[in-house]
Amino acid sequence: MFLLKEKNKKGIQGRKHLFYTLLVYIFSIIIREAFPGGVLMSYITLALYVSLFLEKETSYLGSKLSGLDLVYASLFSGLTPRYLSIMALGIAGQLVLGPPRFFSLPLLILASVIEELYFRVKLYDELKISGGWRRAYIITLLLYSLFHISFISLLKLLPLLPIFLLLGALFQELRLKWGLASSIIAHIAYNILGAFYLVSFTSLSIAIISLSLAVTLSLVKFLA
């Protein structure tokens, strides 16, 4: 009886934590859409929330790799889809090289860390406790993808959904395979390289980027 009560208590607690986690997600999107400079405020909201559990939970920091192996594998995973897509986009005439957008690098780096902590750790783990890893995996990918698409321009930006789904899957696989540090390093590398060029988002360029991510995901999932 005591064990049953403890199990029920943990179940209620888990649902409560998941509710708060999803509430923060919704609140961050509302802030982003409703206010000027809302993107930064949205990330601050997520950062404040994940900071509440950083000291209490450290299991996500472990990795099967160590040292340079972790860095090399993570950089490979983050840079390969960019490298493949840059070559293909250049050949297709969909690539615009320009001056690096250095002013955006600090926000890109912070956003990478915050997104990994919130989506890959907090949200995924809460969903996994409540409904199993498959449901957690799918819902995390979907919410991560929608987080990057403005609801104001939803119809216009919806074709980009496959890119964010594959990108989320890549980072999720890295976190599950090699730990949070791997997904953070890969995410930062991916975002930084993206600050050096622009893409005209046509059906062709979306297909090229999606294919590059799918190839990298396959390498990480099945060959690593």
Notes on the protein architecture:
The chain is mainly α and 224 residues long. The protein has one domain (2-223). It is built from 9 helices and 2 strands. The chain has a two-stranded antiparallel ribbon. Helix 4 (105-131) runs antiparallel to helix 8 and helix 5 packs across helix 7. The protein is globular. The N and C termini lie far apart (46 Å).
SSE inventory with pairings:
Elements: H1 2-34, H2 38-50, H3 67-92, E1 95-97, H4 105-131, H5 133-147, H6 154-157, H7 161-178, H8 180-194, E2 197-199, H9 203-223
Q: Tell me what portion of residues adopts beta-strand conformation.
A: under 5%
Q: Give the neighbour order of strands across the main sheet.
A: 1-2
What structural class do helix, strand and pairing data support?
Answer: mainly alpha
Distance between the termini: 46 Å
